[in-house]
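Please fill in the sequence for the structure shown.

STRUCTURE ENCODING:
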């Protein structure tokens, strides 16, 4: 079975935790897009792991993980991460595989990335990891792929400087390199979890362009980056938070505003620990945006939603969510295509009573307070998509499952 897990907002929805949780049922976890711009936090017992490139499945013994075709891989970052795992006793040898078709991020791309962004009239606020440069060079047909390290004709054509940097890695990664499409074919009877990076609203095509990342964050990217056909995707799980966050610049219609919402933004940021894993930047926070969530459900074919961080609202007397936008005097519940429309959009907010008690120890839906269940039910009705997993804390066991996606049909 092929299960895809994607972000349904602007990234940082808690995919790391959910992928780690679902990895139990997987044989292989394959990441299909992005690079070290991503940051995943996984908490296992008293240990916190921060990963950027390697799928969080690596923390479950015996699972194989794959850095897929659609990724852009910075080998320095990769070995830093492998070193961290080794130091903490996670045996990764033989369990971390790398697509021969993945593109490489060279150190000089990082500087170029920062310079380009600073020159922009409206900087995106990139993570400065060289991601956009790699994808641009890929589209420009001047990228360097993993397989190129072993192709004498291409290798000879690289600059002396690039060869010098890459030379040591030729041996170091040799045993990890695979043909992903072939591996997927050989594993067609296995359970494969395809892990997306960033989120739908940062997707190059579906996101709030140009304030997006440069990879494919949407579910269809699993087919491209995983070397399978679209009809081979069995289930799509969309992960979203009980509120919204965004790192970097760009439109965010439901963002908290001091004049309207007081210090709510600061409160949520502290309770939800909303600081970037990759850059440490404070994340912008806002109300749950149901307009964009339904857009994400449609454009990804999301079968089932997974709600995270619901416990962050535990102390609130009242909760609000955005159910429409007011754009230029008109109300709409469709997600606009342009940045100007999104920037001018005023959120239409709906109020929900809070539950004002801790839910972090709830393990079944029936144990959740009625107000929390009502909030979830409204989301399901609005998006026409069931919410079948609810996360009430960072730990693996703080997860409520109505329907396991691995046995869903
Ligand atoms: P880039 O991917 O570094 O080019 O950054 C482009 C935009 O995407 C910036 O606004 C980043 O903050 C944002 N971004 C990239 N990766 C992530 C992520 O994993 N989580 C949240 N935002 C991200
Ligand atoms: Mg993240």
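FILLED IN BY: designer on duty
SEQUENCE:
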């Amino acid at each position: 079975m092929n299960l895809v897990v994607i972000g349904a907002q602007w990234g940082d929805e808690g995919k790391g935790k959910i992928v780690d949780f679902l990895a139990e049922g997987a044989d292989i976890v394959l990441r299909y897009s992005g690079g070290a711009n991503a940051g995943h936090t996984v908490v296992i017992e008293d240990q916190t792991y921060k990963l950027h490139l390697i799928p969080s499945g690596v923390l479950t013994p015996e699972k194989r993980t794959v850095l897929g075709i659609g990724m852009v891989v910075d080998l320095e970052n990769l070995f830093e991460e492998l070193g961290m795992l080794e130091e903490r006793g996670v045996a990764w040898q033989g369990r971390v595989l790398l697509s021969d078709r993945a593109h490489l991020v060279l150190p000089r791309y990082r500087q170029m990335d920062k310079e380009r962004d600073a020159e922009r009239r409206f900087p995106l606020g990139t993570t400065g990891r060289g991601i956009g440069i790699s994808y641009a060079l890929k589209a420009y047909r001047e990228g360097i792929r993993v397989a190129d390290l072993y192709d004498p004709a291409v290798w000879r054509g690289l600059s002396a400087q690039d060869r010098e940097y890459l030379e040591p890695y030729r041996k170091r990664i040799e045993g990890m390199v695979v043909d992903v499409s072939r591996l997927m074919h050989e594993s067609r009877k296995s359970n494969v979890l395809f892990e997306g990076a960033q989120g739908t609203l940062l997707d190059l095509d579906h996101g709030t362009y140009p304030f997006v990342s440069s990879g494919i964050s949407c579910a269809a990217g699993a087919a491209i980056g995983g070397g399978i056909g679209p009809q081979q995707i069995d289930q799509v799980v969309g992960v979203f938070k009980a509120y919204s966050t965004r790192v970097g610049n760009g439109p965010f219609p439901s963002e908290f505003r001091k004049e309207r919402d007081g210090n709510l933004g600061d409160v949520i940021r502290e309770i939800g620990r909303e600081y970037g894993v990759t850059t440490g930047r404070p994340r912008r926070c806002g109300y749950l945006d149901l307009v964009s969530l339904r857009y994400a459900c449609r454009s990804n074919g999301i079968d089932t939603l997974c709600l995270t961080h619901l416990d962050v609202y535990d102390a609130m007397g009242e909760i609000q969510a955005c159910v429409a936008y007011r754009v230029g005097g008109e109300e709409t519940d469709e997600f606009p295509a342009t940045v100007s429309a999104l920037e001018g959009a005023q959120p239409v907010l709906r109020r929900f009573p809070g539950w004002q008690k801790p839910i972090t120890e709830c393990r079944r839906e029936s144990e959740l307070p009625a107000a929390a269940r009502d909030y979830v039910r409204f989301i399901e009705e609005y998006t026409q998509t069931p919410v079948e997993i609810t996360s009430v804390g960072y730990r693996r066991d703080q997860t409520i499952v109505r329907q396991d996606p691995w046995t869903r049909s």
